[in-house]
């Protein structure tokens, strides 16, 4: 009788352990699957969100100054995020896990208007997408690290990111903003109450 009870106990423990492993694996896959849904694949590939111009909140814009001898401004960068990211930032002072930031890059068109020299957005030059990852979900993917996923998309190919290694291609521009989680948040007035 003791041998049978012991066998049943070992079998029960093994079954529970296997069930736990299966549940843990399923949860891990589900967590990756629903993380930044529609933007990040289970493997960590980032895509450009559809309808970000209409579905996201504009955080702010940057004017990229050109050489005075070549006619002034050379580009505009407009940055967007989901409204939930703005609300989370206003509440906690940081972007929540899964936040997607989209920076749309435009070539600038500078002209003389009645108000003076003005630069407006012309052709789209590309898109830069960052995804907040507080859990380090993709440690073997070279486009993930320092708490973010990083990807650049050329204007003529918005389905395939060109970024191969964020440390070599992205980090240098963001390093001066290390103190604010690698985002120049001071330029986005909508984040302030």
Description:
With 193 residues, the protein is of the alpha+beta class. The chain folds into 2 domains: 1-34; 38-191, 3-Layer(bba) Sandwich (Chalcone isomerase). Helix content is 28%, strand content 28%. It is built from 5 helices and 6 strands, in the order ααββαββββαα. It has helices spanning 2-34, 52-55, 83-92, 166-169, 171-174, and strands at residues 57-64, 75-81, 100-113, 116-132, 144-145, 148-154. A 6-stranded antiparallel sheet has the order 1-2-3-4-6-5. A hairpin with a 2-residue loop joins strand 3 and strand 4. The model is unreliable at 10-33 (pLDDT under 50).
Residue share in helices?
25-40%
The biggest beta sheet is recorded as: 6 strands, antiparallel
Identify the overall geometry. globular
Beta-strand percentage? 25-35%
**Count of discrete alpha- or pi-helical segments spanning 4 or more residues:** 5
The Rg value, from CA coordinates, equals 23 Å
Which spans have pLDDT < 50 for at least 5 consecutive residues? 10-33
CATH architecture of the largest domain: 3-Layer(bba) Sandwich
Structural class determined from secondary elements: alpha+beta
H and E string: HHEEHEEEEHH
How many angstroms does the end-to-end distance come to? 70 Å
| Number of distinct beta strands | 6
CATH topology name of the largest domain? Chalcone isomerase
Quick one: CATH superfamily of the largest domain?
A: Cytochrome P460
């Amino acid at each position: 009788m003791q041998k049978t009870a012991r066998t049943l106990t070992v079998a029960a423990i093994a079954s529970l352990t296997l069930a736990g492993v299966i549940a843990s694996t399923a949860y891990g896959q589900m967590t990756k699957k629903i993380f930044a849904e529609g933007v990040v694949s289970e493997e960590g590939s980032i895509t450009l969100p559809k309808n970000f111009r209409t579905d996201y909140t504009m955080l702010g814009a940057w004017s990229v100054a050109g050489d005075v001898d070549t006619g002034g401004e050379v580009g505009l960068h407009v940055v967007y995020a989901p409204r939930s990211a703005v609300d989370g930032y206003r509440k906690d002072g940081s972007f929540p896990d899964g936040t997607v930031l989209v920076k749309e890059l435009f070539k600038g068109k500078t002209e003389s208007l009645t108000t003076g020299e003005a630069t407006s957005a012309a052709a789209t030059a590309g898109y830069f997408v960052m995804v907040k990852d507080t859990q380090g979900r993709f440690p073997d993917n070279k486009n993930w690290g320092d708490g973010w996923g990083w990807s650049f998309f050329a204007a003529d190919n918005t389905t395939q990111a060109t970024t191969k290694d964020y440390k070599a291609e992205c980090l240098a521009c963001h390093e001066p903003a290390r103190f604010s989680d690698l985002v120049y948040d001071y330029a986005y007035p909508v984040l302030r109450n």
